[in-house]
Amino acid sequence: MAVREAIMRGEMAVAEGRVVPHAEAKTRMARWLK
């Protein structure tokens, strides 16, 4: 069930325009990706 809910949240984010380009996501996550 949790997987389905996560997918739905992702689809809602795309529909609402709450997504960032890959490059921006990498810079935001850089502190955890070290």
Number of domains: 1
Q: Outline, from the CA principal axes?
A: flat
The H-and-E topology, N to C, reads as HH
Strand content: under 5%
Mind summarizing the main beta sheet?
none
Number of strands: 0
Structural class: mainly alpha
Secondary structure tally, helices: 2
Mean pLDDT: 87
Please characterize this protein's 3D structure.
The chain is mainly alpha-helical. The protein has one domain (1-34). It is built from two helices and no strands.
Topology:
Elements: H1 2-15, H2 22-29
Keyphrases for this structure?
34 residues; mainly alpha
Write a concise synopsis of the structure shown.
Helix content is 65%, strand content 0%. The chain is mainly α.
